[in-house]
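Lab notebook, bench 4. Still working through the backlog of constructs that have no structural model yet. Next entry is a single chain of 60 residues. Request: give me the structure tokens for it.
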Amino acid sequence: MDNLPEVILVSNAKCIDGTPVSFDCFLKAVCITEMKNHTCVIKCGDWEQEINLDQIREYV
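Model written out:
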């Protein structure tokens, strides 16, 4: 897991299944562990979930 890109999520980010992203994950950059066509898998501590790319506010 070297050099994973980090991103900041939009403040109301939701996972692709519609569940809200964990509140703790809005307070810091989260790592992208896998990129897909229109989605990516993010990891925040032990929490890992797939989100749409439009849920990313900025890359850090």
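Notes after review: The beta strands are 6-9, 30-35, 39-44, 47-52, 56-59. The radius of gyration is 10 Å. Flag for follow-up if needed.
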